[in-house]
Amino acid sequence: MKIEEAIQQKKFRDEYHKAHINVLFTASWIHQQSLKALKPFNISWQQFNILRILRGMYPEPASVKSLTERMIDKMSNASRLVEKLKQKGLVERRSCKFDRRQVDVVITDQGLELLSQASAAMEDQMDLSKSQLSEEQAAQLNDLLDAMRY
User: Fold this and answer.
1) Dihedral (C-alpha) 144, 54, 43, 74: value to the nearest 10 degrees?
2) Is residue 94 part of a domain?
3) How many helices and strands, by DSSP H and E, does the chain display?
4) 94-139 pLDDT per residue, tens
5) Residue 42 contacts residue 88 (beta carbons within 8 Å)
6) 64: buried, middle or exposed (CB in 10 Å: 19+, 13-18, 0-12)?
């Protein structure tokens, strides 16, 4: 569906304005699809992102600062997210051996299992894009989005 139809707006100031609105609208749509996929696992998109980062570093720990630097949503409070994941038994917080002021975060076996299941649900959700875009189109979109940011 064209953006004009989706938001019922016939005119845009120019193609740049239309592209801006289209990116925002599409990002919101993707976010909603992700929320639906993650709902059965009782985790947010930001918590899923932290678990993925920790899985990538496993068995090495991560500092809250390094999690913040690597997160997709830079506005999220990593400390708060880690605490919620800890309460769910998905991560552990430990004192850093080298710096007592730093806290190390490690994903638990329970966190790895939940992440495996949630990742499968997210892959199913992302597979919908494969039916809409060819791999060449996806590569072109990636190039355009990278160019837009820098």
Assistant:
1) -50
2) yes
3) 7, 3
4) 886 777 778 899 999 999 999 999 999 999 888 777 778 888 998 9
5) yes
6) buried
CATH number of the domain encompassing residue 111? 1.10.10.10
Domain that holds residue 74: 43-149
Residue 146 host element (H or E): helix 135-149
Assess contact for 25 and 3: CB atoms under 8 A: yes
Q: Which helix (H) or strand (E) holds 91?
A: strand 91-95
| Residue 17: alpha-carbon gap to chain centroid | 25
Q: What is the pLDDT of residue 46?
A: 95
Q: Tell me the torsion sign for CA atoms 45, 74, 135, 137.
A: positive
Predicted structure pTM score:
0.88
